[in-house]
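Researcher: Let's try something more involved. This one mixes different molecule types, so please make sure each is placed in the same coordinate frame as the others.
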Amino acid sequence: MSAAKAKVSASSGRRLPYGALMWLFATLLIFGVGQQTVTLHDQEKFTGDFDFTVKQVEGENSLIFSLTAGTYLYGVTPEVILPTPTGSFSRGDETAPQVARALFDTLDSITEITIEARTITVVYGSDMEAEQVRSRLRRPVNNAVANDRGTITAEVSGTAEKTILFSTSDDRFRYAQYQPALVESIEDYDSRAAAEAGSDLARFIVAESRPVQSLRLEPTRLVVGYAEGTAIEPFARNLREILNDFHPRASLAPHLWLLTVAPEIIPPLLAIAVEPLETGLPLFLFTLLMVAVESGIFFVAREGKKNLLIHLVHIASVFLLFWSIFGHEPLWDAILHAIFPTSAQLVHPQGTVIDFTAQHLELVLTSSIYIISVGLFLGVMVTRDNFREFLPLVNNLVNSGQTVPTLAIVAIMGPIIGLGFMPAVVALIAYGLLPVVRNTIAGIESVSVSIVDSARGMGMTSQQILLRTELPIASRIIMAGIRTSMVINIGTATLGAFVGSGGLGIPIASGLSMTVDAFILLGAIPAALLAILTDYVLGRLEVVLTPRGLLIET
Amino acid sequence: MIALLGGCVASFGFFFLPVIEIKPNRLASGLPVGLLEIPGDMRYLLLFLLALTPMLLAFLGERNRRGWALAAVGNLIVILTLYLPALAGSAYLIGAEALFEAGTRISNPRILTSAGIAAGLAGGYIVLFAGLLDLEESGASRLVRGLAGAVGAFVVVLMLAGGTLDVYSIMVEYHSRGETLALRFLEHIVFVLVALAAGLIVGIALGLWASRDAKTEDTILYTVGIIQTIPSLALFGILLVPLARLGDARFLSLARDWLLLAGFALVAALVLRRLHARLPERTRQFSLIAVFILALIPLALLAVLIIAFGFEVALTILTMTELALLRSLTGLAIFVFPIFVWAGKRFDLERKLPHYRRLRFLPLLAAALGGLALLAQGAGELLGGRELAALTIRDFGVSGIGTAPAIIALTLYSLLPLVRNTYAGLKNIDPAIIDSGKGMGFTAAQSFFRIELPLAFPVIMAGVRNAAISLVGIAAVASIIGAGALGDFILLGVNSTSIDQILLGTIPAVLLAVILDAGLKILEGLLTSPGIRQA
Amino acid sequence: MIEFKDVIKEYPNGFRAVDDLNLTVHDGEICVLIGPSGCGKTTALRMVNRLIDVTRGEILIDGQPNDEFEPEVLRRKIGYAIQQIGLLPHMTIRDNVAIVPRLLDWDEERIRQRVDLLLDMVGIDPSIHGDKYPRQLSGGQQQRVGVARALGADPPIMLMDEPFGAVDPITRAILQEEFLQIQQEVGKTIIFVTHDIDEAIYMGDRIALLRTGRLVQYDTPDDLLAMPRDDFVREFVGADRSLKRLHLISVKDSMMNNVPCCEDDATLEEVEACLERHRSDSAFVVDGGNGKLLGWVERTALAESGSLAEAMRHAPAASIAVPEDATAREALSVLLSHSFDVTPVIDAEGVLTGGVSIQRLQDLVEAPGIHAAMQRERGR
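Model: All components are placed in one shared frame. Result:
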């Protein structure tokens, strides 16, 4: 007895604030990694959507490239999102908005542009082929708006008309005005040698272009001095290409991302909208804060006395750490480039990891609301005396439901309901109900008859027995069911991509169909992490929500 | 009450939902027809009335009579729900042109089963279930109940075989794609069985380890738990990279590297074993982990290779026509074994024939020999005539996409139920039993095989059943990464929004799960001592 | 013969479960290890068949150190019965009893005979229960099977760790008695662990009292009760140790033949004289013909009555007398519940053969250990 006691006190004496140490380690790691700036390698997503006006400087062998679109700085978002300026504009129209002007500038043969809320109609001259015009205009249109490019489609109308219709599936085009950015501060190189020792962009330019003699990089302008006797036209074209070949660079330091969850009422179903929110706060500051919080917890709550709040802090902080890492796209680009050095495509063109993850969570959370409420209701119902008759039937259905492959349940929703978000949610509900119902029944049945009997003997009504006796005692098993259900749902939701629900299955599915291995990992790794994270979070919640007396092992 | 519910479900289906849909061709949308809309004589009304009868029967007082009546009605509903719309469908098809607008392209018009039939079947099932429940309570024997429950299914099978239901488009699809379906079904079975076999070996070993070693028990259980939470599609994806790289390796160079690695691990293990006692207490754990990781790499490599190759070989064996005879003989031998065991118990042969205890393993021995011969043939077919130096690991079936990641992921998924149940089964044995065995002079091996394994057997088998059912489901997902199996049909169905194809993939999978579960249950019953069987 | 020689069991954390134990168990003897929980008695027992290894010292079995055998070989030669019984639930009763013979590769016919014999011996009908499974038997029946199984291969030595611990007191008493009868037949060398001092006294030829791994006293039950070595022993055997000793003494050994008695046809004067002779206030009345006890008569009643028949009080012999094979403790109990100076003793026919007085009992309890020999004899 005394020996055992001594052991306990000895071990508590040696106890370390492991939580704080872990966070400290995370801080150091994130800070260390964040010191690096890497080139983004995805050739589709991160090639510069750059456009320049070129001007020859009078009397000097130099050209001025003024950046009109695109940014070399990663993560710079459109500064202004304008309301839709509608109307028809023809070439040279002074009132034409910037989008229209940009499009006119791109192709000489465009004669008229009509801008509506959800469409942009371009009329062009007969000198060009429709396909050519469409492919030339795609990038400027994409650059001009802040909509996802996946939502924009271009349609060539009948050949006689010579028009192309760009339309978006969003509610409207959001015209964005970028602040074009080349560099952050002015860099001046008066010789090739100086440029070779200069910044990445400068080095890149001199390495790629022989005639360049001097360089001056300004935030939106590039002034290039060229060697005597260079043909200007080819040189300018060449330099444009070079500048478009240069990939933007980004720091590997993630920012803290938050998560906003809002229920939105979409009749007749209640859905959840998950929006990732970037704070702009460096993540390592957050982890540093967590070091302090963990140390505080360690010293305040010594003897393992942890209350609800502390558990919730743990859960939230770990979740935010992973969430933030999901949100930092350069990190994914760097990781995938390390694994697939030769792949031209790395991060998915249709969205960022955090977008897919948010969609994924949206699916899972929305379905979980139904699963939990319906599952608990069903489970409680069939264990009431009035409806106990149905217990064998429900047990039978729950067990045999297990034998239907998840893929089949998801797949069958397509032909029945159609494609999109809802069929996936319905499939998730159908499959996710099983563990919740089963565990609710098992949990309530596990409450011993004598406990219920004594509760009744003390004069509790059947409602009180349910709420004060049966559910609290069953809570642990019920929570385990909910946990299983949600973790399974995260897996099933990846299959939702095949019925067009979005989520992390999208990169996996498109990676498989386009044979881009990087996309597969881009979906698989976050999906696996998300599942493990969810399991962890719910595991913690399970402990928090279980009455303390039930946690004591006998 | 349950019968009432069943009647409601069926009536609702017949009343409000279309039972069949007539499509002018494979792609166009169809014309839904409700049960009550079918013209002609009143026999379709019969079904509707039948669906209403459980509501009356529910008020019948006497248990036994009510049970029989409900079971009969339930079976009838199931049979007629499939049969009557099929009749109506055939009638519709004769004058199909008249049904559609002029100009509709009509080629191979077909009858789609629709939601009404699903509701009818569900309702019939529920009514039948209610009837069987009543019969159980009124004390009917298990056999009687089983027979009563199987009548409907049996008639349906007869109708399927007799071609009565061929009018449905799903049967049309089945007849045109039957051979592919059989192959995919076979692939599915092999997936599940190979993964289960590999999982069984690894899982029982890990479960045994966890139950014996308090230090590693948490780690092992936690790790297999983590694996389970990873979405199947994601796990397939994650396995892609290492397996693709592994597949590119040449066999000879890998074998050399493997031997080096294994040798190194062995040496390290031996050295650390020597040093173990001398190391300070705190570092012992780390040295253990180090050896563990060192040993894990070659072991995992070997396991991957064996599992992937095993799958290929198994599939080859099962599809090669030259091996049909050997295959069926081996199968027969395996089948005979449980009969021998059963006969031994039933007729008390163990006491009457002196060597029966040993004799009954004869068929197993024969099966093992047959299996070996088959293995040799299959492996020869896959690798035969290749230059050893030119052999890559890909030739053994290891590649990033396809069967290798699928079978390995399946094996990993089977681990949790197997490890957990083995662990629980072994841990829950009363230590006094093991102690008394030891005290009587059982060696460690005798104690494991004669005491612990038999006692933990039902629990382990529950894990095997669990694993088998979930593997059938996950194997369907494996089709997404090009591994074949029944998921192919489901994916095809999704792409062509054809519910028939999806069902054609789903129904065999469900049947497989049910049959595997039942088969394993029977095996469990046969091999479990009556002394520990649950009452 | 089992000898513990300077046996020490020390655990890696320095805890000594058994500390310098020296003990000799002679052939055919039941040696009971007893002590408070955690005293190391079970450890000592389990070291004999090497379920636990000895740290220092040695255990000799018939003069041979037990670590010269393979543990499994050693264990198969030593019967082993434990409190939890540990029957293998997946084997039938027969198979359970046959375990060790099968391990020793006996032929099936011999095993069958042996199993039937043993089951009969412990009072289990092999034809009824033989093919049942352990869970179909009651706790007492399982204990019997446990004993039969320990006897399976007829081992010369048996280790029993509270083998009757898991059953109710009544069944336990029956099992103890039956086991002593079996032991009379088989004469094994037995080490028997218990924490129940009454069981130890009843079962043991010798009792070894352990405390924190050390042997405190090793003596016959009688000597242990008569001469506790120190306060610990005294406290352990209990304040009622005198009563316990009475338990060890049979009436036959402690009775005096000379009791006040008269035949039923005696005159009042003769009765008076008898009372005077014994300086007693009451006398027993026996049948003049066959000597059976009929009742008693009290001095006060004599004066008021005309004849003995009028004065005597009839009573069934069983309610006032004890049989010859009862223990002295029972005699005391009867003595306390009646107002006699002497408890009459009758034989199987009901004939008064003697009596036990309180004085006599006091003498017995105070005499140190003289009844050890008698007790042992009774045990055989």
